[in-house]
Amino acid sequence: MALADLANLQATIGVDFKDPSLLEQSLVHRSYLNENPDQSLSSNERLEFLGDAVLTFVVAEEIYHRFPHLSEGELTKLRSALVRGDMLSRVARSLNLGQHLYLGHGEEESGGRSRPRNLSGTLEAVIGAVLVDQGLDAAKGFILRILGSELEQEIQEKIAADYKSRLQQVTQSRLKIIPVYRTIEETGPDHAKVFTVEVLAGDSILGQGSGRNKQAAEMEAARAALESLAGE
User: Fold this and answer.
1) Distance between CA atoms of 65 and 59, rounded to whole angstroms?
2) Inter-axis angle of helices 72-82 and 45-66, to 10 degrees?
3) DSSP string for 154-165
4) Domains of the chain and CATH, by start
5) Angle at the Cα of 173 (from 175 to 169), degrees rounded to 5?
6) Which stretches of the chain are DSSP H helices?
7) In the chain, what is the straight-line distance between the N-terminal and C-terminal CA atoms, in Å?
8) Residue 153: pLDDT band with limits 50, 70, 90
9) Catalytic residue of the set 24, 48, 52, 62
């Protein structure tokens, strides 16, 4: 890869490497070395190993602080959801990492640049390269920045599920009934809709909430219902 390409990639990912050869190494797939054994490059597998470890740590630390009430088992399940391969490959695709990969001809011809496993592994290798080049704080900042929207979405889904699960437990215990969510209003243009949802137990409205999607609105409705029931 030309130095200019590395410079463009650094601009894309928002990291200015002290040693750009580390970034280059993170892009080397084993298939390239198999077909080019005389190259001085190494595969990205060691950096992938390191990146996987630091990614797991950073996500674990984040959810440990965000969810102080979750048990070890619940934290483990959430962490697994947040570092799964399909999420990492989506982020790698958004950074256009596939176009920068060093691939062997066979891997290239078989669609290796868009293969989810290659993309997720490369992203982990890039994380490992940032760690080696700039240290843990920089790697943590990089992870939280590039995964920010994906992590936040997964976390919000967990929060919503948690509120709804707690509300169901309360209503089943007190009222012997499962709550039902009903969308009562949609406002705003298609690109910025606001949904309003109410949650009912039988004919009784327990709470109401609004959000930019139905899931967020249901979460707010469940939260409002829990607050109301706690005050009774």
Assistant:
1) 10
2) 130
3) HHHHHHHHHHHH
4) 3-146 (1.10.1520.10), 155-230 (3.30.160.20)
5) 110
6) 3-13, 20-25, 30-35, 45-66, 72-82, 85-94, 105-109, 116-134, 136-146, 148-174, 214-230
7) 66
8) confident
9) 52
Beta-carbon contacts of residue 101 (< 8 Å; ≥ 6 apart): 27, 28, 29, 112, 113, 118, 122
Length of the chain: 232
Phi-psi region of 29 (alpha: psi -120 to 50; beta: other; left: phi over 0): beta
Rounded Cα gap, residues 159 and 109, in angstroms: 43
The Cα angle at residue 150 between residues 220 and 154, in degrees rounded to 5: 45
52 is catalytic: yes
Judge whether 107 counts as a catalytic residue: no
pLDDT digits (tens, 9 = 90+) for 59-99: 999 989 988 877 898 889 888 888 888 889 999 999 999 99
Specify whether the CB–CB gap between 127 and 46 falls below 8 A.
Answer: no
Q: Which of 124, 133, 162, 198 is catalytic?
A: 124
Six-digit token pair at 49? 């190993």
How far is it, in rounded angstroms, from Cα 225 to Cα 197?
12
